[in-house]
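Z., the sequence and structure:
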Amino acid sequence: MRSDSREIAAIFVGGMIGALIRGMLSESWDVDPGAWPWATFTVNVLGVLLLGYFVTRMRERLSVSEYGRPFIGTGFCGALTTFSAMQLELLDMIEVGHYGLALVYAAGSVAAGLVAVAFSSGLVRRARLSR
């Protein structure tokens, strides 16, 4: 199997931008295992919102690009979202006895992500149908 260095570069550059944005947002909020982790929740929902929008747009409205999906999907959105941090925050909540918060956070994150991706994909599809 041969790798495409331009595809790897697209993933790298997209990932670098996504990680920098996530880092800036994460630094702006304090993390307390007894409180809602707004930074992680925000970047995860924002990431799937953007992923749904751009991947649907690239697939259904724009010409196929070899490097757009790796740049946006794998690189940018993959680095922007941080489900590993969400898992660590859930473990921290459980460790300090905030079981209800952990349950609501886990369910809320999944539900918000599903709503965000459905909403953003729907926007692209509605725009296509209205033309």
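The longest helix spans residues 99-129. Helices lie at 5-27, 38-60, 68-80, 83-95, 99-129.

Let me know what you think.
H.
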